[in-house]
Structure formats: C-alpha cells, structure tokens
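Agenda item 2: iron/sulfur cluster complex prediction
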Amino acid sequence: MSIPEVNLVFDEPVQRKKVPKHLADYSPEERREVAKALGLPAFRATQVATHYFSHLADDPQTWSDIPAEMRHSIADQLTPKLIELVRSVTCDNGMTRKDLWKLHDGTLVESVLMRYTDRVTVCISSQAGCGMGCPFCATGQAGLTRNLSAGEITEQIVAAARACANGELPGGPARLSNIVFMGMGEPLANYNAVVRTLHNIIDPAPDGLGISARSVTVSTVGLVNGIEKLTEEGLAVTLAVSLHTPDDELRDTLVPINSRWKIKEVLAAADAYEKRTGRRYSIEYAMIRDINDQSWRSDLLGRLLKNRNAHVNLIPLNPTPGSKWTASRREDEAEFVRILEGYGVPVTVRDTRGREIDGACGQLAASEKTRTD
Ligand code: SAH
Ligand code: SF4
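Presented output:
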C-alpha cells in the first residue's frame, strides 16, 4: 500500500509528487495518520521516528520493537532512502568533509560537514541549484533544477548526525551541534519544506533531532516575504541575510532579487525578526576585490548597522570557475573590519574551511556535472 497524500500546501506540487514520501515530510500528527492509513497502529509512527531521529538507525533489522517480518515494509513506506552518496572529499586533515548526494531522479546536491574543537556543523542544501542568479555564486550560475522535499533536506542532516555518531570524522564519535542552510539553494524560496525541516531539527525526541534552534542558521538572499513568514513561525533560529553591499546600486547587480526588495526593506524585515525572536541576526558579506570592499562602503555599512542588533560575517570570495572576480586583499579586508568596529558593529571574518575541496556553494555538484557531461 502506498502512503496517501496528506493535505499539505506545497510550493511545487507537480515536481514534489515524484519524490517518494518520507516520515520527515510530515508533522508528528500526520505521521500517525499516515501509519493508520497503512493499516498500522499510530504508535508505529512514533517508534519509527525514534529509530530515525534518536537512534539514527537506518538498518530496519535493528528496530527490535517492531515485528521482524514488518520491519522492511514499514521502512520502505516511512523512511525510503532519498539520498545516495556519490562521493566524499575531505580536507583539513579530515575535519572537513564534503558529500555529494544523488537524489532519486539523478539530481545532485551537496552538504559539508565541519568539525571544530567545540562543535560540529553541517552545511546543507535546500534546493538543487538556485533561481536567484547571484553572479558570484556557482549555484546561481547553474539556475534552479528543483526544490528539495523536507525529507531530502532532513536526510542530509540525519546522515551528518549519523556520520558524527559513528566517529567518521577524526577525533572520535561526536554529536552534530550546528546546522546552516548555506549550501545550494535559497531556503526561503522553498519555504514549506524548509520550515518542516526546521521542526525536524528542533523538535525533541521522538519527533525530531532535539537540536536547539539557536544552533540553526537560515541564510537568505533577502526574500522579505519569506523573512516575514518565518517571523510568524516564532522559531528562534538564527537568521543570516546575504547583503554583500550597503548600497542598492551595486546590490542590484550582485543580488538580482534586490530589484524586488531594496536594502531598507530587507533590513526592516530582519529587524522585525530580531524583535520577535530576540535573536541577533547576521549580515553575510562576500568580500570581492575592488567591487564591494572599499572603505566608503564599510563606512556606509557601519552607519546602516550601528543601531541594529546585527553581526557582520565577512566571507572572502571563493572565486567560481571563469569568474573575473577574486577575494579582497588582506589590507583592504583589515581596513573594512577596522571601520566597522569603529561603529561598534560586531564583525568576524569567516574561516575558509573546505576551500580546496570547493567547499562553497555548489562547486562540487558543478564539477561532477562537468565530469559526467
Ligand atoms: N541562498 C542563500 C543561502 C545559500 S548561499 C543566500 O544567498 O544567503 C550561502 C552564502 O554563501 C551566502 O551568503 C552567499 O552569498 C555566499 N556565497 C555564494 N557564493 C559565494 C562565493 N563564491 N564566495 C563566497 N561566498 C559565497
Ligand atoms: Fe542562490 Fe544564495 Fe547563490 Fe544567490 S548566493 S544564487 S541566493 S545560493
């Protein structure tokens, strides 16, 4: 028996239908309904959720509280395998690992797992490709293939949690502590699946992974309608806004969606988010040599942010193949930081983890595509 359609509003119902349904696509209540529709007692859904989120047990043979003869069919129905590992590449002595995943329709997406002394972070994809077209971004160059389902996004996170628990990174078994939506795609353009995933991350056992909301960062190019909707959810996840420049003239070029929502509107939406959740937000700023790294821009950014509860994250540009742009000079970066700090704006320069394995933004999937084309 196949799992019946539950009445949910999806962003792209036609495409989404093709992705097999997974327990992670549903709310806890819907999971119980789905179990009942399969002719199972509702508590089976809770048992499977516990195996999936708490035990990270992907082998149904180990599900000892479920009758042996039922395990495989229940697993096929509720936790079908949605992502298959194509290859992994590591760097930083194994502390950074980038995984390339193939989805059921052959689409490729990637995630990056990074172990630090005090935490393990996974950077995940919310879409295959991205339709926002930022010219400095490898994912943006490829365009949007499709939205991922909540199951496909959640699977990347659960696979990362399992890799940590299994001690696959040097330093022994660990607990996945942080999740950032900074892989491929614009999370707020795949809103429903992303919010379902946020619940899967935050909800305590048996419904989710029980990771604290503050350890989750949703990075957006600045979709104001999406930020407003997220504000209403009342989830205290960290919001990151990819600003990249304090002036609309340049931002119209670097971030094409700026023609729809201007900087003022984006910051107002982020402020409202901060007010509602009490969470300081991040401003992401890719430092591009001689494009957006001038001291006058730092000055303008400082003035824009000095009375806001925001933190600036400077990201040295990771040049994409064929791009004429490159990362800022060290001295320009240092001056940029100095000026911002003069305004009392907290600022950090992002470490360049994973750079030699194309650790940023769609580059592994892009290179795999070139290999197979
Ligand atoms: N679409 C979302 C999240 C994914 S991109 C967003 O744009 O925020 C995650 C971050 O990587 C964004 O801040 C994005 O601007 C940045 N980024 C994209 N391409 C980059 C590159 N080539 N070098 C450095 N940062 C890049
Ligand atoms: Fe999409 Fe973000 Fe890349 Fe822009 S930077 S194209 S929004 S993934």
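Discussion summary: Residues 52 and 212 are 18 Å apart (CA to CA).
Owner for follow-up: CH.
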